[in-house]
Design brief:
Number of helices of chain A: 14
Strand order of the largest sheet of chain A: 3-2-4-1-5-6-7
CATH architecture of the largest domain in chain A: 3-Layer(aba) Sandwich
Strand content of chain A: 5-15%
Radius of gyration of chain A: 23 Å
Oligomer: homodimer
Shape of chain A: globular
Largest interface: A-B, 71 and 70 residues
Largest sheet of chain A: 7 strands, parallel
Amino acid sequence: MASNPLLAEFLSGSRRALAKLISAVENDGALARTLLDELYAKVGHAYRLGITGPPGAGKSTLVDQLAKTIRATGKTVGIIAVDPTSPFTGGALLGDRVRMTDISTDPGVFIRSMATRGSLGGLSQKAQDAADVLDVFGKDFVIFETVGVGQSELDVVEAADTVVVILVPESGDSVQAMKAGLMEIADIFVLNKADRDGAQRAVHELEAILHLRPAAPWNPPVSATVASHGKGIEEVWKRIQEHRDFLLQDNRLVAKRKQRLEKKIRELVSRRLKQEFWDEEARRLLSQSLDNFQNEKLSPYRVVDELMEKFKTSLQQRMEN
Amino acid sequence: MASNPLLAEFLSGSRRALAKLISAVENDGALARTLLDELYAKVGHAYRLGITGPPGAGKSTLVDQLAKTIRATGKTVGIIAVDPTSPFTGGALLGDRVRMTDISTDPGVFIRSMATRGSLGGLSQKAQDAADVLDVFGKDFVIFETVGVGQSELDVVEAADTVVVILVPESGDSVQAMKAGLMEIADIFVLNKADRDGAQRAVHELEAILHLRPAAPWNPPVSATVASHGKGIEEVWKRIQEHRDFLLQDNRLVAKRKQRLEKKIRELVSRRLKQEFWDEEARRLLSQSLDNFQNEKLSPYRVVDELMEKFKTSLQQRMEN
């Protein structure tokens, strides 16, 4: 029993309603909040994949191929592509994504691009909320696709059950990936463009680096692909299924999802606290101390003490009224 | 009049006391807080440089050369080198930094390495606090040196008055830098290892990318260096002085430092709010909903609502007692 006509349409399987619900989530309004509260009890069916790697590694192509492979097994797929938009480049550097038409016209596949433009944080929350919507819609798999640069992009893929990191056989690529924090989050490595020079060496380099790591219950495998020719995709799919089987043992998937939920709640709390804290009076107090900062030179720690006191007092007043 | 013997020793110019104060800042205790409150009125003398770039770009060498150049003008220098320590590599990948001995034995230079190990956020705060300490100690220049990967490292260099981004003539380096957000924060670009193949092409590529950007009051120049042979350092130093002169016009430096202070206060507020929020009861409530998450499936937004209510009530109770 849906309380809202859009929700009723959504639950009856309308793609149009699905698209509208995801837009509501992107716009982050009261409607989204109400809908998510209602939907949440049904979340948990979809298996979530995160696919990331440096610009130009061939992520979109690999995601499209993977979606085709999953579709061939009869399962449905939702794709959430997060495009980073730098304030400098305006996103123009990456160019417009051109999706393979056979995927985008398949009714069993739903693709949505989300931009990072300006949204400081909150992106990973929105991507997760969108995944929840796709999940309740009945998608068997949800794929997050994002460039592996920047914390907010890492947050997006970390919301996945299985994380696939794509690299290419270029000098220093794996070292860069390591410094960017990609090595820690990868469950599976894919060396794409494996028909290029140096591919074999790059695979060995990567495996050598991985062997430095202490043995764990799951040791990330390395697969070589040429996504543009569909080569190696079956193997990646097999690795993903193996990782899923691994997570289904010993309650690991439940534990992982619990951790993810905890992270999400903690982030939401931080955002709410900020919203409540920075009311008009707090902003006025802040701008006062900033205007005086050259004369008074109050330590920032003291300014924060004052602001905290004010926050507590005004919370108390609000509760008394 | 210093309230603390260590502070008195520090204010009389003791390097030993300086080192101790910075350690106190790193350990983030009550002592550091008291000392920073007392010192803060004297902050503002030192000019702050941020030097960043990908691993292997030659940052340490360039910083050492720059420090020598600054010392030759009779000015003193403090260096805060932030080494990222990945939980995976344990920092071993970069190897230990070997500093040039002629710099590290100069009493006019103070070098301190700070590790990122595990400190989720807070690193940039600590680096800034350490810079404040060096500032009050009387250093004319403070240099932040850090690997240009990851948000916390970007936060460190962003606390500088002038940011120098170092690149090397390797394919895709400038594109990677752009995606990593380095382009937006650079006031000056240095193409180091300019004796390598492709250096001229790399300079042109970088300049071409920079020309895509709309003209601004300050347009970042590109300098070519071979830091290991001391080549080009004088030019970099000249560019830094030009950028400083630029900031000294039209109140720009004051405005920049004001913005930096605002950012710092906002971050401190977020940390304090988190600390106050996640008391024993909140953690217990969170772990209860997490334990139930598969059965109850309360939306995370509802869990946050409950936690916020509890927070307000307990704040009120604490204030009444």
